[in-house]
Write a structure and sequence with these properties.
Length: 328
């Protein structure tokens, strides 16, 4: 059944990182957490950034700070930890400094879509944590580790895999286990999952379910409780027990009704739409749109978020959270 290898701390040597300086480019969600973990492990860190609050924060956290290109110049291992839409611009500033080094990305999207196209004289690896920066830090401090994926995109030195694994161990991930995959698996599965299900698909399914009830005259509070509010408990069941285990743990009506009606909602037409979404990710069309949106200062995204705030379900959610004293 298993397709990918999992590596744990006992399988990994730190030798390829001995005496190496690591550049953290970008001091945001991942950058600040990864810099702290590497430093606690005794590695020499330089932080690269553009002038502004995040570079000031790195300085006040005790790191030596430089421009992106100067930090890359001073390091042997260069971790590109700016948002994916900024990878191309920052890569252009550092690419002349990478010869003989290792370039590291924390997600595969820019490599997969060709936004960055590394030259042939340095290693390129991906070390992708499966959670946000605060978990990268807290799981390191608690020695629990977290699931991560790594991939070798270019192996010029013959040691790229050892370096990627050593980075996973230095960041604390191997305490739980790291999966070896291809860059394309991580990039496509991550981005498609966000669009088809986790963010895009789920939000639209919730909105449509709520609105179907409200349009038939059911009370908004009860429509909200029956749809969005109930998600939390169900997500826990999916997470802990899988789809089959979830069905074993819900009521008879939920089990029978869910299994009957689920395929009526998510039918072939939805699958065809999913194929189109995946086509756009694989062709690079999504990345092109995303970069254009980033260059516009995320104008469309900001406008859409404002519109979402005014949607009936979101106003009802705010009202319910207030009345029932939910935490934000
Ligand atoms: N967020 C996560 O939990 C997570 C999880 C797994 C993987 N990843 C991956 O980790 C990488 C970093 O993501 P992140 O969420 O940590 O990023 P982030 O917090 O948004 O990165 C912020 C940092 O990037 C700099 N930056 C932003 N836009 C820039 C631009 N146009 N030009 C130059 N510098 C810019 C910021 O500088 P200023 O302060 O000056 O703007 C800041 O130092 C991405 O590849 C992402 O896919 C993230």
């Amino acid at each position: 059944m298993s397709e990918l290898n999992v590596y744990r701390t006992e399988d990994v040597s730190l030798e390829t990182l001995t005496g190496k300086t690591i550049a953290i480019l970008g001091y945001g969600i991942q950058g600040s957490a990864q810099a702290a973990n590497f430093r606690d492990g005794g590695f020499k860190i330089v932080v690269g950034g553009r002038p502004g609050p995040s570079l000031e924060r790195a300085k006040s956290d005790g790191f030596q700070t430089f421009s992106y290109s100067e930090a890359a110049k001073r390091a042997h291992v260069v971790c590109l930890l700016v948002p994916d839409a900024a990878h191309g611009a920052v890569f252009d500033q550092i690419k002349s400094e990478l010869s003989g080094k290792t370039l590291v990305v924390a997600g595969g999207l820019s490599l997969f879509s060709g936004t960055i196209d590394p030259a042939k004289d340095y290693d390129v690896v991906m070390v992708a944590p499966s959670g946000p920066g605060r978990l990268v830090r807290s799981s390191f401090l608690s020695l629990q580790g977290m699931v991560a994926a790594f991939a070798v995109h270019k192996d010029v030195s013959g040691k790229a895999k050892q370096t990627a694994l050593a980075l996973c161990r230095a960041l604390g991930f191997t305490q739980m286990g790291v999966l070896e995959c291809r860059v394309k698996d991580e990039a496509a599965c991550d981005v498609f999952g966000e669009q088809a299900l986790l963010c895009g698909g789920m939000a639209e399914l919730v909105k449509a379910s709520y609105q179907t009830l409200v349009d038939r005259g059911y009370s908004k509070e009860m429509a909200y409780l029956g749809t969005l509010y109930e998600l939390r408990g169900l997500v826990d069941l999916y997470y802990h027990y899988g789809i089959d285990g979830m069905y074993e743990r819900v009521s008879e009506a939920a089990r029978f009704g869910g299994m009957k009606s689920g395929p009526r909602i998510i039918d072939d037409h939805v699958r065809q739409n999913m194929e189109k979404v995946l086509d756009d990710i694989e062709s690079g069309a999504f990345m092109k749109q995303f970069e254009e949106e980033s260059q516009s200062g995320f104008a469309w995204t900001k406008k859409s978020i404002e519109e979402q705030k005014n949607a009936d379900i979101n106003r009802m959610g705010a009202d319910i959270r207030k009345r029932f004293k939910f935490l934000p």
